[in-house]
Design goal:
alpha/beta; eight-stranded mixed β-sheet
Length: 540
């Protein structure tokens, strides 16, 4: 299996991306995509997460210590090293330890520009406030009421599940949530988030000198962080300050309705952003309109991103729409968005199976699995026995002929009328399988090394940003098995296109982590393949 231990780097000339590489033990760089300029013009930017220290005040061996060390390995230092830290996290479960925290030092640390992230309990202890606990049978949420970096990817009014589920109740489980009592906004203090039942503060900020103290409940969500409802985003919000966690994605409270919300969202996106347009490009087998988003100039070669060929896989379309929003912002040069749109156009087909999407059904209205309706291997296809679709016949599942379905014909038309350099087919599978970058080890595509490097680059960019459970980071891996099934990826490669399948996991409480995988895979793949394409075509 392809795994690479060396660090990735971006290669730049006068600030512009011209190549990607791997850093050798002797600090030399092996160019993996694009080119390296002469040494006196080259700038090598290592792809690595932030390394600034975090001073931790928490119970030794407790849940908080385990989680933050799993998420930020090598960054956590003891309270005695506060002076050399950039951040402090204070989350003491033991009341005795909590009373022993020296808040004079923490206030001084903040006054000099440091950032303190504290549990509600510790902040209340330091300010003479009270933490109140309530329980609901419904899921409690943190409601965003003020713009703030911890809410990157959120809009005002968003509701994020934030609670602990108590399963040991004799009659029914309840969900616990907590809030601050006695908190008074003003004089540098403000409420950032409140609970959605009593409208009490559950996230607050206090400006102290040149720094700040941010308090939110880090102790009550006690299930596996990143893996259980109510605790999935426990470290995503503080991670937006410590990390950041969220770069491209956004919070989606629910599935966009295909008829009443989805087209209007695309239209509004196109009207608000100069770089994007949206088009009605055809009809699905049930007569539903099919839409495409287009980012960039018409005369550029294309990267094609495809979502929801399987209608029940509803998260990736939302991640793709959020990626388009991010491509239009072009906020930072490090992400390579400016380089991408200088040389390429991005076409996005977020939902290719609207009938299945609206009903959470994998197949199309005609019972066809649209990812079995491509020519490569269609004749030899023997079905998929033993899966959720085992009652389907082979002919039902693959369709009466290659490209028999209007959805797959639309993809064929894009590929045959545009200069498509690369294609990603997004899918979604069970949580236990993890996020998988699918590219066969026996691929003979001339850009196979760059495609594999795209996986390594995406993995490094996703490092230290999300927990899968309290003790492990996000599961993102490469799958290199071959298939003889008539998949879109296989057909695209036979057309000379660099292509992968990306399987993601999660549902709407995983909007942030799912969306970041969608986006980071797309960006890494497009950069690795695009740089090599420009070099090959002499357009660098």
């Amino acid at each position: 299996m392809y795994e690479e231990s060396r660090e990735c780097c971006e290669i730049r000339r006068k600030g512009k991306l011209v190549g990607l590489g791997l850093i050798n033990d002797d600090d030399s760089v092996e160019v993996t995509a694009g080119e390296a300029p002469p040494d006196d013009e080259a700038e090598f930017v290592i792809v690595e997460p932030p390394q600034c220290p975090i001073a931790l005040f928490a119970d030794a061996g407790g849940l908080i210590e385990r989680e933050i060390n799993a998420l930020y390995p090598g960054r956590i230092v003891r309270p005695g090293q506060l002076k050399g830290a950039r951040f402090a996290v204070v989350a003491c479960d033991d009341p005795g330890m909590r009373t022993g925290v020296d808040w004079r030092k923490l206030d001084s640390f903040a006054r000099k520009g440091g950032v303190v992230i504290a549990s509600l309990d510790d902040y209340a202890q330091s300010r003479g406030l009270t933490v109140k606990q309530r329980a609901r049978t419904e899921r409690p949420h943190l409601e965003v009421v003020a713009p703030h970096p911890i809410f990157s990817g959120c809009t005002l009014g968003d509701l994020i599940p934030w609670h602990n589920t108590h399963l040991d109740r004799p009659i029914f489980p309840f969900n616990g949530f907590r809030y601050l009592e006695g908190f008074a906004p003003g004089d540098g203090r403000r409420m950032l988030g409140r609970d959605d039942a009593l409208s009490q503060p559950v996230a607050v900020e206090e400006v102290v000198g040149e720094g700040r103290i941010i308090a939110l409940d880090l102790l009550e969500p006690r299930q596996a962080a990143g893996g259980v409802d109510g605790s999935r985003n426990k470290w995503v919000l503080p991670g937006n300050v410590l990390g950041p966690s969220v770069r491209y994605s956004r919070w989606w409270p629910h599935r966009l309705d295909y008829q009443t919300e989805y087209p209007y969202y695309l239209q509004a996106l196109a009207e608000e952003r100069d770089r994007v347009s949206y088009h009605l490009v055809g009809e699905a087998s049930d007569g539903s309109p099919l839409y495409m988003l287009e980012v960039g100039d018409e005369d550029k070669p294309v990267f094609l991103l495809v979502g929801a060929l399987h209608g029940g896989e509803v998260m990736n379309p939302h991640g793709l729409v959020a990626l388009v929003e991010a491509l239009c912002r072009n906020e930072d040069n490090i992400s390579g968005i400016g380089w991408l749109l200088e040389h390429f156009r991005v076409l996005v087909l977020p939902i290719m199976n609207p009938w299945g999407y609206q009903r959470s059904i994998q197949s199309s209205m005609t019972d066809c699995d649209l990812n079995r309706n491509f020519p490569s291997g269609w004749e030899e296809y023997e079905g998929d026995p033993g899966r959720w679709f085992s009652n389907y016949t082979r002919d039902q599942f693959r369709g009466p002929a290659p490209f028999s379905e209007p959805e797959t014909r639309l993809i064929r038309n894009v590929v045959t009328t545009e200069t498509v350099v690369g294609l990603i087919d997004y899918h979604q599978h069970q949580w236990a399988a993890g996020h998988a970058y699918l590219f066969p080890a026996d691929s003979a595509h001339p850009m196979a090394p760059q495609i594999r490097f795209g996986y390594h680059l995406a993995k490094q960019r996703l490092r230290d940003r999300f927990l899968r459970d309290s003790d492990n980071q996000l599961d993102f891996h490469i799958s290199e098995g071959s298939t003889k099934k008539p998949f879109l990826r296989r057909w695209a490669e036979e057309q000379g296109i660099a292509a992968i399948t990306q399987e993601t996991v999660g549902l709407f409480e995983d909007s942030f982590s799912n969306g970041e995988v969608v986006a980071e895979v797309a960006m890494a793949f497009m950069q690795a393949v695009g740089l090599e394409y420009l070099k090959t075509e002499g357009k660098q």
